[in-house]
Design a protein that fits this description.
Layout (H helix, E strand, L loop, with lengths): L14 H14 L8 E2 L1 H8 L3 H13 L3 E3 L5 E3 L4 H25 L2 H20 L2 H18 L3 H14 L3 H5 L4 H18 L2 H32 L3
Antiparallel strand pairs: 1-3, 2-3
Amino acid sequence: MNIEDLRIVANPTLVREHAVDKIRTAIATGLYLPGARLVERELCEALGVSRTSVREALRQLQSEGLIEPGPRRTIMVAVLSAEDAADIYTLRELIETTAIRRLVERNDAKVVRRLQSAYRAIEKYAGKGNLPALSEMAGAFYEEILDGSGSRIISDSGRQLLKRVSYLRLTSMSAPDRVEKGVAEWSAIVDAVIKGDADAAAAALGQHIRNARDTLVARLSATGEREAAHPA
């Protein structure tokens, strides 16, 4: 994603929602990195919307945990610790494995096709080495699982957790061999769903989330150790 992609052209009633989506995507794809300061004036210019719309969008993103107050009344992209990330992924495993069991038990052909479609997009972007697009499609894949559960409570709770770690997905994917292993794990999840095996689907998804968690926590821990050894 580039700064030019933030521009919004939409019905005024949808401006706030578009602003939230645009800024959230910019964070998730690495345009704004953890710790980066978000300046209202610059966002207004990039998005082409009013300061009121930007402020409303920032309030929404702060409620999601994606941004947080910085020094001297600034707003910055949230920085999650390795411990925070581990906790979020542990909760993701509980919720998403429950969701995929429900999805399999519902046996809805349309839901399965949407999950397969999301996986094919993952394969395509993984093959191209397009990590930002791959990260976005991985998020869509998990959302299909949550929505496929047929439970609004499960879906809403799971989506909130996904939003908290969306911008960290690139950190995990950039680890050596993680994309290749991840594609194999996604494939195993889809295969189990197609076979109607809820236990295998939950086991494959649980292992996938744990592997992603371990990779991410290791990289965040290493980053924290380097910063402690070489403070700014």
